[in-house]
Specification:
Largest sheet: 6 strands, mixed
Number of helices: 14
Number of strands: 19
Number of domains: 3
Structural class: alpha+beta
Strand order of the largest sheet: 12-15-16-17-19-18
Amino acid sequence: MIRLKDNSSKELSLQSQELSVVRCLAGHSLKQLLKEHGDTLLIWPHSFAESRNGEGDASLFTLTERTDTAVIQTGNLMGFIGYQATELAITSRFTSTERDYFLHYMLLKAFNLHVFNLHHGLCRDEAFDFLIYLFPKVLLQALSQGLYKEYQKRSYNDARVRGVIDIGRHLKLNSPPNGRIAYHTREYSYDNTVTQLIRHTIEYLGRTELGRSILSSSDEMRTAVSRIIENTPRYDAKERNQVVRRNLRPLSHPYYQAYRGLQKLCVQILRHDKLMYHSSTEQVHGILFDGAVLWEEYLGTLLTPKGFEHPNNRTGQGRIHLSQTSKFPRYPDFYHRSGSVVIDAKYKRTTSRNDIHQVIAYMYRLQAQKGVFIMPEAQAEDTPQNSDEEMAHNEIYKLAGYGGTLTLYRLSIARQPQDTKDFATLMAGYERTLLQELGI
């Protein structure tokens, strides 16, 4: 196990056994990794949505080899990735404990899961926890397109012939003649290989405390689970491996696009033990999360109930235009419906010149009087010195010209929690403090 932190560097000895594996993974872009290992490696949100603005060109990490050491430099991705007998765990740099409560907390909040009182397992099981966290969001997104259906071959043996007669099977089943005829049909059915895969995943998750909590985490989720169960009457627990094999080829239906990501997730959940605990596998496997996107989605759970819009540059929803002719579309992270406040979510330690210019442009377009940056609270030893292009916590900058102010706020991250529930309690207090400072 190699333990890393996001957006940080770590030295490895050139004699390290893990270095050969690191070399194989270093420098690969997200697009490359998903193209080559998309069946066993999930990267949220890139595995489930089209990446924009060059996001897919970012690499998992870079490797610089020196005279006697090699230096790994990570980016925004967090989670677990494994290859052969080596596993890399990338945790958030904003957590000070060995257990990454912060990553768990952001995932649970962003995916609207209220299971903070559960105690999770050790590192190897954390990867499985992350897969489970994703399941409700991806399932509900897929079902929003309707329950998946496709043509299925069905075999019958009765007196009401509705398809092609199967001579061989008829002679075997109906000799001497008994009034029945063996035949098969091709029917449009909800009970198919994809819905069977979802059903097997539901039954598999139902064996664990965390899985049962996730499956009943909301009324919407309970309805979705019931809908899958009701429409898969042919479910047979003994056919799980066969169903997984049938789903190894990615779905290519032109309408049910959201089911492609769900299919990959279900296969990963059901094959998790095989991938994680068989060191001989030549497949790159695991689950990773984009920290910048996750931080933004997490802040959305705090800000959208307070009247803020949250545009989505992956779907094109909520965009604004810098011209009156609907040209130059832009996507502020958050802006108040009144147009008075623009908020930029930054999963990093400092602001840059470009960050400041971007927010000022949004303020001008929306005629907002307040521009805000929100960042996680860095650990004391990592807090940088401010330069002319950086902002200090809560320091208000009055803008010239049309006026308005720029302010940076940092959300404190609980440092020494006892468990997941304690971390959630502490974070709830810090969130209230942040909203009070913002005046919303």
